[in-house]
């Protein structure tokens, strides 16, 4: 109850930090999708690139988030704005599930369907847009859903470099040893993660091939 009263009493700041959190997650997930989906398509058609791309994405995942923020701080232009730095870091972390699911979705299309398309005279580009991507859409969206949920959680750490978001409450609460302040950041972040999971999951089910 104390947490609820604290949130109600500070609702303006909670809303402001929630919007900042949404901005960081939304932009980074969009950028990761714009980069990850084409990369997944590329390695699905150029198998020799599969291993290096996926290994690079896996290595990024193993770097602790605070360490990655520290590595990027000296980078010109990025280090001058903490929100830019946070968006880049979150984008890098979101790449792996999107690349992997896009690859698996494209490679999972039935070879007989591909051959039937070629038999009808479709070009490789037409096969991609009219056959492979429509059939792989639900799998690709599953990767985007995982990336969005990961980003919601990692975005809380962006407050450590002054990028804003709900992590500000969490770090402030830790410094004050105040559970109310910690939960004022953690609860809205958890709700955002659940909404992202539910929303993209619903879209994924709607677009699943019948």
What is the topological layout?
Layout: H1 2-9, H2 11-45, H3 50-62, H4 65-72, H5 82-107, H6 111-119, H7 124-154, H8 167-176, H9 179-206
Helix pairs in contact: 1-9, 2-5, 2-7, 2-9, 3-5, 5-7, 6-7, 7-9, 8-9
Could you characterize the architecture of this molecule?
α1 (2-9) crosses α9. Helices cover 80% and strands 0% of the residues. It contains nine helices and no strands. With 210 residues, it is an all-alpha fold. The radius of gyration is 20 Å and the shape is elongated.
**H-E order:** HHHHHHHHH
Helix count? 9
Query: On the 0-100 scale, what is the average pLDDT?
Result: 87
Radius of gyration: 20 Å
- Give the percentage of residues in beta strands: under 5%
- How many strands in all? 0
Overall shape: elongated
Unreliable stretches covering 5 or more consecutive residues: none
Task: Describe the structure in brief.
This protein has helices at 2-9, 11-45, 50-62, 65-72, 82-107, 111-119, 124-154, 167-176, 179-206. The protein has 210 residues and is mostly helical.
Keywords:
210 residues, mainly alpha, 80% helix
């Amino acid at each position: 109850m104390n947490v609820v009263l604290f949130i109600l009493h500070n609702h303006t700041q909670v809303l402001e930090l929630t919007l900042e959190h949404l901005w960081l997650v939304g932009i980074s997930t969009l950028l990761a999708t714009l980069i990850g989906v084409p990369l997944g398509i590329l390695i699905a058609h150029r198998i020799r690139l599969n291993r290096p791309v996926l290994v690079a994405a896996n290595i990024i995942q193993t770097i602790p988030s605070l360490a990655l923020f520290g590595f990027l701080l000296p980078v010109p232009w990025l280090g001058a704005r903490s929100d830019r730095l946070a968006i880049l870091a979150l984008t890098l972390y979101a790449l792996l599930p999107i690349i992997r699911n896009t690859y698996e979705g494209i490679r999972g299309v039935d070879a007989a369907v591909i051959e039937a398309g070629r038999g009808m005279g479709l070009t490789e580009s037409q096969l991609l847009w009219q056959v492979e991507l429509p059939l792989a859409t639900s799998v690709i969206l599953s990767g985007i859903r995982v990336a969005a949920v990961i980003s919601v959680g990692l975005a809380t750490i962006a407050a450590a470099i002054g990028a804003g978001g709900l992590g500000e409450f969490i770090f402030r609460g830790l410094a004050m040893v105040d559970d109310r302040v910690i939960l004022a950041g953690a609860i809205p972040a958890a709700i955002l993660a659940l909404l992202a999971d539910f929303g993209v999951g619903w879209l994924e089910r709607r677009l699943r091939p019948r």
